[in-house]
Amino acid sequence: MMRAVFRVCLLLLCLLQAELPVCAQMRQAGKVTLQNSGRKPLSGVQVKAMGAVPASSDVQGNFSLHFNKARPGQLLLLDEVYKEGYELVNEQALKRWTVSSSRTLPVVMCPKGTLASAQEKYYEIGKSHNMARYAEACHKLEEQLKQNRLSVEQYNARLNEISEAYQKTMAQLEDYAYAMACYNRDDLDRMSVRALALVEQGKVDEALSLYEKAQLVRIYQGLEVKEIQAEQELESMLPSLRLNADICLFAGGEENIGKARDIYEAIAWSDTTNASYAYEYAEFLTGQLLLFEEAKPWLLRALRHTTDPLQRAELYSGLGMITTYTGELKQSQSYLAKAGGIYEELVTQEDYKNDAYFNMAYATYALNEGRFWDASEMSINAFEVLAEGLKYATKAVQLQPEKYVYQFAFYTTDLLGATNDFAVQYRQKKDDILQGAVTFGSLALEMLDWADEKEKIKIAQLKAGIYNGLSVIYANFGQTEPSMTYADSCRMVVEENEALNPVLFRPLLAQNLTAVGQNLYLAEEYEAAIPYFFESYQISKDLPFLTRTTLSALHALMLCVPGMTEKQIVELSRLAVDFLRAHPQVLAPRIAFDIYWIYINLNAALGKDLPFCEEMMLEMLALIQEEDTEKVWFDDVSYVEQLATVLYAMYRHHGTVVTDRKTKRAVLDKAIEIVGRYPDLPEMEINQQVIEALWIED
After folding, report:
1. Separation CA 22–CA 29 (nearest Å)
2. Residue 293 DSSP SS3
3. What three-state secondary structure class fits 32?
4. For site-directed labelling of 37, which of 291, 453, 505, 577 has its Cα 20 to 30 A away?
5. How far apart are CA 571 and CA 341, in angstroms?
6. 562, 570, 580: which is closest to 600 by C-alpha?
């Protein structure tokens, strides 16, 4: 009996051992087809994925990836999809594919160069459409203002809203155009194919009208997701829904961006257990709308439903990023610590260590942690974290240069900023820090030459940004000549590319001119700096989406008063405050404070525009009261003494009562009240008494 039991146990053990390798293995089936061909198969395509035996598609386009360690739900990290003369079309769609034995991996290819050609065509269509749309919206606003249907404040606020939407669309138009180029008509319904054709004819609004009438989102929301048939129908509708959303983004405007949001939200709600849907919607909320608080619960939902360790790390890293931006620094540190723990564990595994996607994901985590330390005002930590993360970004770009060079360069720009902040904050202006920054920047510039054609505008923008960053760093290190050389390189890149996208490159040109001016200003060459600041102002003043840049240029001009004639001082100071008052929605409080302060000082000292000085004084004091909640703007008693001196100039040196007793009393009362807000400064009561004494009439 015991012997029989033993034989049965032995047999079962042998069967289990025989089945173990089969259970441990995972097979992912795939099929390669040509874009827009009626699903024509493509043979001879080499497919490599992390942890899988490389495969090649057969004459039917079929292939199989065999994994030894993978499990259902694990991210499929495609390292290479290659056939000479062809390129991968649906890379973005496959980005969050999870290994599955029941679903076929759909790989779509096209002849090399097809995507770049289509992207260029869509880009020009989108640029023309958005420029015309923006001009029309601005014209309508101007008409409403002329007809007194809007106040100046309402006009400015509304203009700011449509300008921001326009700028956002134009800044991402290259990405939108590429997304349009990647659609496979074989996956779309008839209406969507027609909509895409209308877009290609430049009839973007007509394409949107088709979707509006069809009400795809309502149909999608009305399906019963619990039934198998409904689930299949839902999945088949996704390409058309996503095209609808992408055309909305491509068309631009607040209303269309809102429609795109409705689509992504509907997809996310259709299956709240689908981590990819939740992640996709969270990315839309943060990337398109900067709605970090609203994105947070969707990232948490994705975290609950993912089983892949790398995706968990990415989600924790994303949560760390958005809580940094919302000021929840304690929570941010906790999320980033969890992400870091997972990355440190995965990097010990050979497969992950040598995977390009993983290395760039690790670098992105370092970027988010660097921003956390920067928000915590610990630039030394930010610098060290980013410098450590650079090795992962470098490895990613070495493994797959064309794919990750843009992310590498973007990473480098943050590292340049952290280096500059660290050097300035800690006064560590040493040659090795400067040379390190130059090395980072030079490496990024060199690698940008490998970039993919589809990102040429973003690459040009990054090149200009890196040149500008190096210019600023050299300026802060007191080396004017190399700073000016890099500034010239920045300007050359901007001027070469400005016609492609004025919305992207005009700000860079204005910022570059301001940087050159700042170099000269720091060298106390005020007269030489003035033309650069003034040209920056001239470039940006008529473009509503550059009002902040205009304000910065005017601010910089006013700092150059030592190099100005009296006439220039009066004219430019009045120009600055007029612009500031005409554009209340772009108020950058500290810059506004400086402009008010300089204007009042100059005009009071010169005896010019004294009644206007009273208005400015009241506005400035109200701004301090509202914005200086930490009570740090008057950080020295000399500010208070200077305030008293300016008031003396207004009410004693240049005459008695400037306007009327009521206005004078309001100015003095507000000044006394503001001075009283800084009790820690010495002799506050005496300064209040000095200001009060100005009420005595001659």
Report:
1. 16
2. helix
3. strand
4. 453
5. 59
6. 570
Among residues 593, 590, 514, the alpha carbon closest in space to that of 556 is found at 514
Q: Following DSSP, what letter does each residue of 414-480 receive, concatenated?
A: HHHHHHHHHHHHTT---HHHHHHHHHHHHHHHHHGGG--GGGHHHHHHHHHHHHHHHHHHHHHTT-H
Hey, how many other C-beta atoms are within 10 angstroms of the C-beta on 172?
18
Residue 283: its H or E element: helix 275-287
Q: How far apart are CA 207 and CA 129, in angstroms?
A: 13
Dist CA 193 CA 191 (whole Å): 5
Helices (H) and strands (E) in the chain, counts: 29, 8
State pLDDT tens for residues 603-662.
888 888 888 888 889 988 988 888 887 777 777 777 788 888 888 888 877 765 567 888
Q: What is the DSSP letter of 70?
A: -
CA separation for the pair 158, 145 (Å, rounded): 11
Determine the Cα angle at 378 with ends 372 and 383, to 5°: 80
- Please, is 620 exposed, middle or buried when counting C-beta atoms within 10 Å of its C-beta (0-12, 13-18, 19+)? buried
Would you state the structure tokens that stand for residue 103, as one six-digit string?
A: 């679903």
Distance from chain centroid for Cα 485: 28
Q: Dihedral sign, CA of 324, 329, 331, 334?
A: positive
pLDDT digit string, tens, across residues 57-107: 999 999 999 988 877 778 888 888 999 999 999 998 888 888 888 889 999
Mapped onto helix, strand or coil, the DSSP state of residue 534 is helix
3-class DSSP assignment, residue 328: coil
Instruction: Give tens-digit pLDDT for 355-404.
Output: 999 999 999 999 899 889 888 878 778 878 888 888 899 899 888 887 88
Residue reference for tokens 């039917």: 60
Using alpha carbons, select from 476, 475, 544, 479 the residue that is nearest to residue 507: 544
- The token duo for 106 is 């759909």
- Decide: 440 and 416 in contact? Cβ < 8 Å: yes
CA angle 158, 252, 538 (to 5 degrees): 60
Amino acid at 341: G
Burial class (CB in 10 A: 0-12, 13-18, 19+), 326: middle
Q: 493-527 burial, b for 16+ CB within 10 Å, e for fewer?
A: bbeebeebbbbbbbbbbbbbbbbbbbbbbeeeebe
Q: What is the CB neighbour count within 10 angstroms for residue 594?
A: 18
Q: 361: which residues sit within 8 A by CB, 6+ positions away?
A: 310, 313, 314, 317, 343
- Token pair of 363, please? 């670098």
Question: Which amino acid, 236?
Answer: S
Amino acid at 457: I
301 and 272 in contact (C-beta within 8 Å)? Answer: yes
